What does this fold into?
Amino acid sequence: MTLSAAIVKRVSPSFAIDVDLQASTGITILFGASGSGKSTILRCIAGLMRPDEGRITLDETVLYDSRARVNAPPQHRGVGIVFQQLALFPHLTVAGNICYGLSHVGAAERNRRLAETARMFRIEGLLDRKPSRLSGGERQRVAFARTLVTEPSLLLLDEPLTALDFDNQSRIIDDLRRWNEQRRIPVLYVTHAHREVYALGEQVIVIGNGRVLAAGVPHAVLEHPTHPSVANLAGFENLLEGHVFARDENGGTMHVRIGSSGPHLEVPIADVPGGSVVTIGIRAGDILVANEPPHGLSALNIIEASLGASRREGPAIVADMITTTDTRFVVHITPRAFDRLGLHTGKRVWLAVKSYSCRIARNDTIRGGLS
Amino acid sequence: MDWQALGLSVRLAATVSAILLVVAVPLAYWLSVTRFRGRFLVESVVSLPLVLPPTVLGFYVLVALGSRSPIGRLWTEWQGHGLAFTFEGLVIASLLYSLPFAVQPLAAAFAQLDPSLRDASAVLGASPWRTFLRITMPLSVEGFLAALVLTFAHTIGEFGVVLMVGGNLPGVTRTVSIAIYDDVQALRYDEAATTALALLILSFLLLAALYGIRRRPWAASPLT
It folds into this structure.
C-alpha cells in the first residue's frame, strides 16, 4: 500500500503548504518544527480539511483530486488518526470509545475485535472506566486501540506521544510496531522530537515552512543535513553560517570563513562552488576542549576561545565558548572534565574540531518533493 | 388565583419551548461552526429581543401579523380569521421574543465542545448526523437544559409583548402576567398576590432544578 499526496493549501496570506510526498508500508516520520505545516498535511489527508489543489491517493483509491472534483468525506476514507490531544469521548467508557468506529460490524465480530485489541494494548481491565479516570499512558493506549480496531488502510499519528515519559513512549512504539507487522499499512507519524525519528522511522520526510526539505532514511537525512533547518531539527547545537573561500581538492577539504571576520574552519569537501554561502552544523558533544594549545592532533581546526556562561543540564555541562572574533560555540562537557581542565568564566581554552564533525548544508538549496 | 390564566401561560410556554428547541438547535449549531463572515449580523438579530423594549418588538409583530401585512392576509385566507389577538399570534411573538434564550445557551454549549471530538468521530466513520446525535448532543446536555428552562420561564413571565399582540382575552390571550396587572388595576390585591406568589415559586423551582443539576456557577445565563 502506498499513500501519495500532492497538496497545495494556502493557510494564510503569508503561509502556504505545497508538498508532494509518498509513504509506503511501514512507518514514515513527518518531521518538522511546530508551525511547519505537518498537522495541516495530516488533516488534508484525513479529509478534515480541504486542500486548494492537488491529488491524494491510497494505491488505486482516489481520496481527493481537485481536477476530477473528488473529495471523499472523512468517514469514507478508511483513514485512522490519533490526535495529539487524543480526543477520547469523555461521556463514553473505554469500551464505548473503542467500539465507536465499529457500528457497521455485527455484535459477535465487534466483541471479538474489542477483546483482541484490548489485549494487545493491555487495557482489558479498564474497559468500564471513563477516560477521566485513566492515567496519561492508559489514555494514549485507548486512543491507539480505538483507532486501530477499525482496521484502517492508512494510519495518521499527530504527535500522539509527546506528553508521555520515555518508558511509556517506547512501550507504545513497540505495540505499534508489532501491530504493523501484521497489518502492513502506511503509517504517517508527525513529530518535532528528533529522538522519535531515530526510534521509529523507517523513512523520514522533513517539512519546513510548508515544503518538503528532505526525505530518505533517518540516518542519511539527519546526519548529513543538506539544509540548515534540517540540521537545526536534527539537533546540531552549533549552526554557523559562512562562505567557502578556498577548495583543496587533493587534501579533500575546503575552507570556510564563519561570518565576515569569524574563525575559519576546514571542512570535508562538498559539491559547492567557491564563494557559496553554507551553514556548518557541529554537535556540541563533538568539540574537544584543551586548556593549552594542543599538539599532534588529527583535528584540523584549532580555535582559540574563552569560556563564557556555563550551566548544568542533566549529566552534562553546557558551556558557551566565545572565540577571539566573537563567534559563539556551544560545547557539552562532563563535570569531571570541566574540573580537570580548571575551567572558569573567562578562562582561555582551545577548541579542537575534526573536519568530519562539520556537516555542510547549502543555504540556497531547498529540495522540493521526494528524491 | 386565576387558574385559567396560569394554564394558558403554561400551555404557551410549553408550545414555544417545543418549537424553539427544533428551530434553535440547527441555528445555534450553525452559529457555532460557521466561518461565514456575516455571522455577527445573524447573532445581533437573534439577540435583539434581549435589549429591545418588549413594546417595540410587540409593535412590529402586531404590524407584521395584522390584516394588511402579507403574513396576516395569508393566515386569514387559510384560517378564516386574523392572527392578532389570538393564541397563535402570541406563540409567534413569543418565539421571536424568547429566541435568544434558546439559541445562546445552545450555541455556547456547542462552541465549548472540543472540535477534535467531532473530527475523531468523523474519522471513525460517523456521518455528521450520527456525530451530532452521539457526540455533540450528549456532551451539550447542559446547554439543552438551560435553553429549555430559560425559554420556558421567560415565556411564562412575558408581559409587554403579550399585551401588544394578544390583548387581554380570557382563555385566549390573558396570560398570568396580564392577569396580575389586571387585578392590580382593579384593586384586587389579594388575587394579584396569590398569582404573583405562584409565579415566583414556579420560576424559583425551575431555576433551582436547573442549577441543582448543573454544577457550573451561573450556568444558565442567556449571555454565556
